Amino acid sequence: MLSSNNSNHLRAGFELGKGNKLFQDIEREIIRMVFWNKDITQSRIVELTRIPQQTVSRLVNSLIEGGVLQQANKVPVGARGKPGLELEPNPNFAYSFGISILLDAIAVTLMNFKGEVMCSRLHEMSDMSIENVLQHGESLVAEIIQNCHVSSDKILGLGVGISGFFSSMDGKMNTHHALEEWAEIDIAKIMSSRFDLPTWVVNDATAAAAGEGIAGVGRNYKNFVYLFISSAFGGGLITNGEMFRGTFGNAGELGDMLPPKQYVHPNLDLLKRILIKNNVEVGSIYDMSKNFDINWPGVDEWIYKVQDSLDLVATSCSALLDTQAIILGGHIPKALAEKVIPRIDVYAQFRRGAKRPLPEIIVAEINDSPVAVGAASLPLRELCL
């Protein structure tokens, strides 16, 4: 489930209001084709969508005039044909904000209409109460707007990623115990009211997966599983480029695959404890990730402890979903992820000299505020893609 709360906004002649209709369905289809397909032309849009050529031409011209799309390079189409014009989203048409409410920090990200990250800010806090988060969130948003010279009337909306699971179909979440004030309340309504923006809410791991699918290596795969390794362990699922949410919005709760009495959860709090035991001075998991040294004593111990858990999760995801890729992300240091991956064993039956095709296991590209980046992609996904 994706919790949302909306207010009316005007964007360059396109009205956002009833039913989240910033664009008509046929316009969204064209925008979707342009967004996901690099070097695409009008003729290619006709081939992919089977929309009549005259209709495509009329709508593309309208979207260009409205500043939604822009022309890129000319592409030769043959000796007799005229060169085609490549299309791409106009990055300056609109923007979206994402806020991640972590266990001990918030992060804010600004994304443009092309799906590019323009700016991210992380602020660590000991007080994660609603009012404190809102105050610091407002300050970070205002700072980014000023530094990036973004007009407030071009902001599509706000996405929020927070640790927890949806309790029912009403969009309220059972949040982590460190976020007690945020439990069982209408987070979308609170955030939308404070920021005066249409707002969508997902859990942190789903947000991170969504961001990786737009702004990271996940864009190369239509189907992937994202392993969210942070203070806790979870995951997100992308199917055919879309977030797979399940019945209540809790698809991807990979930590629940690991009964704690039998398997160690591969999270960074465990790594921090092991490092401290080995006399390595570490602060928060964010500082630890930023200053990580693969040769620290205790790193190999952590890998040994979590290896069986990662084997089980990766094998289960491969068997159940037949996914293209498994991406290790969250706040795990890139060097640590690269060392872990070769040790992950995905089991598959060996038959007639071969196994079934197995997913690639790769490192996420987004390691700076991945939840906020993913949250920023939510308005773009919901309204335009």
Automatic annotation (TrEMBL):
A Pfam match is HTH_24
Which GO terms fall under molecular function for this chain's record? N-acylmannosamine kinase activity
Which GO terms are recorded in the biological process aspect for this UniProt protein?
N-acetylneuraminate catabolic process
Q: Which PANTHER family match?
A: N-ACETYLMANNOSAMINE KINASE, ROK (REPRESSOR, ORF, KINASE) FAMILY
Name of this protein: MarR family transcriptional regulator
